[in-house]
Amino acid sequence: MTNHLEDLKTKIEPLRQEIINHKVYSLIKSVDDLKIFMQFHVYAVWDFMSLLKTLQNNLTCTQVPWFPSGNAETRFLINEIVVGEESDLNNEGIRMSHFEMYLEAMNQCGADVSQIHNFLNELKQTGSLEKAYLCAKVPKQAAEFVDFTFKVINSKKAYLQASIFTFGREDLIPGMFVSLINDLHKNIPDSISGFKYYLERHIEIDGDHHSHLALKMTESLCGTNENLWKEAEQFTIESLQKRINLWNGVYDVLYKHQTAVV
Fold first, then answer.
1. How do strand 95-96 and strand 88-89 relate by DSSP bridges?
2. Reported pTM
C-alpha cells in the first residue's frame, strides 16, 4: 500500500472510530428503536446505489457501440459489486437489490416506508431532490447526506467518487451494532430476520477481496497527483462527517422518543 493511502487512512481514522463507536447504537434496544433507525438509514442505502452506478458508468463502458474502457481490475470490482448490490438473493432465495431487501426488512418490522416511497416517486416525476425532500418530509440530516453524495456524483470526478465509496461507505458497520441486532433477533426473530440477513449479506459482500480492490481503484485513479489526493482526503473527511451527522440525527430522535416514553 502506498504512502498516500496510508496517510489518508491515518487522517480519517479518528472519524471512523467516532462512527464505529457512536452513541446511537446503545439506544437501539427494541424493534421500535430499530424502526426509527431504519427510517433514517434507508436514504443512505438508496443513494449508495446511485454512487455505485455512477462509478460503473465512469469506469466501464455502458454505451453502444462498446469499447474497452479503463482498467480491467477496476471494471471487475465495479461490475461484481453491482451484481451483488442490484440482484442478490434475499433470505428466501428471491433475486432483488439490497435496497429492495432493506425495504422488505422495514415492512417486516413495521417501519414506515411511505416516506421513502414518496421521496422516490416525487424524484422520479420531477428529477428534483429538493422537491422530493419537501414532498416526503425527509429528515434534515438524511437530506444533507444524500445532497453530499450527489455533490460528489455531479462533480464528474471518478477519483472522488471512488474515495468516498472506498472509505466512506463500505466498511463502517461496527461489530457492536451487529451484536445488538443479533440479540434483538433472539427475542423477536419474526420481526427482524430480514434486517439481520441484510446486515450479514452486506458484511459478506464487503469482504477482504472487495476492500482490497477498492483501495487499488482509488490508488489508481489518484495516481501520484498530490492535488488529487488532497481533494480525495477533503471529500472523504466530509463524507464521514455527514455519516456522523446522520447518526446524530437518529440519536436525537431516539433520545426524545425514549425520554417521552419514560
1. antiparallel
2. 0.93
